[in-house]
Target: EAL domain-containing protein
Amino acid sequence: MQRKERHALYWAMGQLSIMAAFALWFSGVAALEPLRRPLGALLITGGAAGYWAGTQFFLGGLRRGEGAWPLLGFLLLAGALQLWWAANPAVVFPSGGLLLCLVMVWTGVRLGRGRHLHRYRLLGITMAVRGMFNLAGSIEMTPHTYLYWFAASSVLKSLSMLGLIYAVQHEIKQRYASTIDSLSNGFLIRDKRGYVHVANERCASLLGYGSAADLIGRNVTDLLPGLTRQMADDYFAAFEAAGTRYPLTQEAELTLHSGAKLPVEMMASPYIERGRLYCLVQLLDISERKKKDTLLYQAARVDPVTGLGNRYALAERLRADLAQAHAGARACALLFIDLDKFKRINDSFGHGAGDELLRKVAQRLQALLGPRDMLARFGGDEFIAALPDLAPADCEARARACAQAILAAMVPAFDVSHHTVAVTASIGLACYPRHGSDGETLLRHADIAMYEAKKAGRGELRFFSDAMNAAARDALVIDGALRHAIAANEFRLDYQVIAEAGSGRVGKVEALLRWRSATLGTVAPDRFIPVAEDSGLIVELGSWVLAEACRQAALWRGGPLDGVRISINVSAWQLADPGFVPLVEATLARHGLPGALLELELTERVLIDDGPNVRSVLERLRALGVSVSLDDFGTGYSSLSYLTQFQLNTLKIDRAFVMDIEHSARSNSLVHAIIAMGHSLGLQLVAEGVETDGQARILARMGCHYLQGFHIARPAAPEQLLLFAASRSDAASGAPV
Model:
């Protein structure tokens, strides 16, 4: 039993003790005569002790475990009364009445004087009056007077007992009310019909009312305008359903009488009173949680740099758009947009400038799309534009028009961090349902098409085709096999002679990479080189080629190929690698070769993509004595500025011009102009694809320095090349080969 319930027990014991004392005195039983005085003294003292202890407990002045000394005192008092009464029987009633009078008056005064006990003042007065009546009852009365005294005393006794019961109940109620009012959550108890029996102040505040009293006795449907009787009944039915696990927790959005919306979490538990089931409901205001959930939702689906949806938001939108398109027999288009050479912006100006560029690109792209279209940042420098609800017959035309508008919008340069930056984009396109029946497939196919656009020269657009898918699968297989090919010693180098046009002697050799895979067989360079570049494996592969070519040049020393320069192809990935120049220097030193025996072949695309970095790398290579050759000249941009900016050593004329030199005056004139320009710039000229004696003679007359092609020699293993070089060095001929 808790401390604050103990007062009720002591008050009851005190009243019962007093009633037993009066019963003992007026019983008239002869057998009880010897016990009347000692037992009466004990009962009267026990009654006084019960009221004293009950009042002390009620007021908090006596705690559990502190009753030993008061109990001893009352026992001594009982003994003293018994001795007094035995010596003076006439004082039994006056002294007993006086003791009860003093205790009850003291109880009344204590109950009425407390600072927080003013609500018990009437009870205190009643107890004091009752004590005076007990004193009056000990005086001799006439039977008629005693009848009035007994009636009035009974009324006072009843009132005092009811008051004491009220005090106990009131304290329990106050404790209960204080407990529920101290809750940080709203709390109410409703019955099956929906009427509120109990509510706390927090609940009233949440529901927009002034106090809990405004809720009690009213139906929940009257308190919440958006709540219907059926909804209230359904909630209680779910609450009392068999197998329900408590607390029953639900989230809801309540409409308040002010019209405001309140998101809450309701936790309901059962409560049974007098056989009737009630529902105890806690209301938790989850407005802040909802705001945080919204922020988390946005953080998970919104790109922080551009403010566009990210790939998760895109996936959700695609599912909805494709489901709608499927239901309505409509089409959707997907544009996979990748910024070309975006990494160069980050490397040159920092990631802050890169983020600024992404935001400005996003603004331009968004301006081109309709209100129903979606633009998302897929990651890095990749954007996705989704065009929903298109007519199947118009899907490709609409997608193409949008892609062309995007390419045109990228032409004007961007002002980024006080720098003017030109950026192009490559776009892959896929349409639903032609190119895929789900979002993941469409994205993958548009991605494949985008890479095809990059291979076409960047700044291009391509629609997905099944052939691209086959090529992508082939690239995946090749990529897997490439990763183990070097360790498995599956590569080799063949060498093709580059002969002097006048003497036919071997002037240079070009190292050509060959791959015979254990799983794929012989794989042509045009199949595996692009895959190696896309995956970044070209750096490791290029390092192997450099090391193997230098090793072979060292082996040729002292023979027919001693002093012959070896030319190797270098990719943009290798030039962008900070360790490339130190690698070249270390490789030459390891094999004891001078830099003059090594020539690096670049394409125009390498010079265009990363001009400033390439220029710096080439300057460092030239300091090592390494020569630089521009491969396939005439097929790309053929900008004359490259020839002066990069201080090249050699131009290689593409085979596309050489093959028609005998029969096309236009090709003949173009090759002649290239050779003349090369002479004026002090460059060496190499003609590729020389297949006939006529081509060789014409090129020699034009002043071309070197010839390369099947007419001169086919690519061969190092041993065969030695035999060829020996035969050419023995031949003394001034005629072109």
